[in-house]
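Format notes (please read before filing issues)

Several people have asked whether sequences and structure tokens are stored in separate files. They are not. Every record keeps both together, in the order shown below: the sequence lines, then the token lines. Line labels are part of the format and must not be stripped during preprocessing.
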Amino acid sequence: MDNAEELTAISLLVEPVRWRLYTYVRSSGTAVGRDEAARAADISRSLASFHLDRMAEARLLEVEYRRLSGRTGRGAGRPAKLYRVGARHFAVSLPATRYSLAGRILAAAIEEKRADEDGSAAVRRVAGRIGGEVGGDLRDQGASRADAPLAVAERAARQLGYEPEPHTDRIELRNCPFDELAESHRELICQMNQALLAGLLPSLGADGVSTEPVQRRPGVSCCVRITPSG
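Then the structure lines:
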């Protein structure tokens, strides 16, 4: 795909309704029908169909047909048109990646490494400090102190590209903003990521929540989840 085609595809997502549909289909982790997508975006089925088809034409989404009832044969009805996120990659990453942030942490760790610590310890220390700085910046952007701590943490994680999936007792992080680095340097980057989030949460004012390491599993590529403390 050339740059013009890629820019055209990405520009489609600037439209707010289309972005809501795209993020819903992506977070679903499975193929989504028009009715379901319309309900999620709080729009009519016809408008959802229009936007979904536009994104499919640009190969942002892939289309499949399946009978949702599971019935086959005569009388089973027509297959439904379903949409899922396409496999294509963009130079502009979707979801967001934060390789400049990773570079800042790793460069500072090299420059500031103490005589009594190894490289990974320096990375963890610097990541925690920079996480605090990032959390302070996000807090200053207007988070309400009246918000529940998990809600504060969820909003910050979303801004940083983690694709948070909220539950009543935890937040799963579906995306790793440092995913490509983690593929080749898993242990170091996961340590950095955990330290970054551990430093981020207190400076947000998200009292009563903390991080814990988790094993990566299908659909959840981050090595950390956010939970209430205690």
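For reference, the curators noted about this record: The first strand starts at residue 32 and ends at 33. Strands lie at 32-33, 61-66, 80-85, 164-166, 171-173, 209-213, 224-228.
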